[in-house]
Amino acid sequence: MTTTNQSMQLPIDECEEWIWDTLDSTKDCSFEYIKDGNREFLIFNTNDFFADAKALKKIRKTTGMELVQMSTHNGYTQLWFGRYT
Question: Angle of helix 12-23 relative to helix 53-63, nearest 10 degrees?
Answer without folding.
Answer: 160
